[in-house]
Amino acid sequence: MRPERDQRGTVTAEAAMVLPLIAAFSLVLVWMVLLGVAQVRAVDAARDAARALARGEDEQAAVAAARRTAPGASDVTFAESAVGVTVTVTIKAVAPGWLLLPMPSTTVASSSTVEIEGGATDGS
After folding, report:
1. Tens digit of pLDDT per residue, the chain (124 long)?
2. Listed residue (80, 87, 78) closest to 111, CA to CA
3. pTM
4. Is 119 left (phi over 0), alpha (psi -120 to 50) or beta?
5. DSSP designation for 99
6. Cα dist. 113→12, 28, 43, 46 in Å?
7. How far apart are alpha carbons 87 and 94 in whole angstroms?
8. Residue 94's Cα: distance from chain center in Å?
9. Is 35 helix (H, G, I), strand (E, B) or coil?
């Protein structure tokens, strides 16, 4: 017969190995949620700017409408076509410092196309 081995302390050792992995996974999930929030803000900002252009406001007013929703560092571009105007809002998402893990910054973007009422794109 073999003597039984002492199992005391194995749960503590296993927890010490698993808890850092769970913490890192949780921080990655937080980063993914923050990216989702940035994407929603880009979608809303593009929609707000496109709606302003559809009402006949000028591009400065449309940019202001987009900046109310998107962060100030966002990029708002306009492209006219036969269909209407396409507004694209691009946001550079940077991981906050409190996240503790060096996450890569990424860019999220959204576009919205609207038909201009009355055919004017400059508000006149």
Report:
1. 565 677 777 788 888 889 999 998 998 899 999 999 999 999 999 999 999 998 889 999 999 999 999 887 899 999 988 878 999 999 998 888 887 778 888 999 999 999 876 655 444 4
2. 87
3. 0.77
4. left
5. G
6. 57, 33, 12, 9
7. 23
8. 9
9. helix
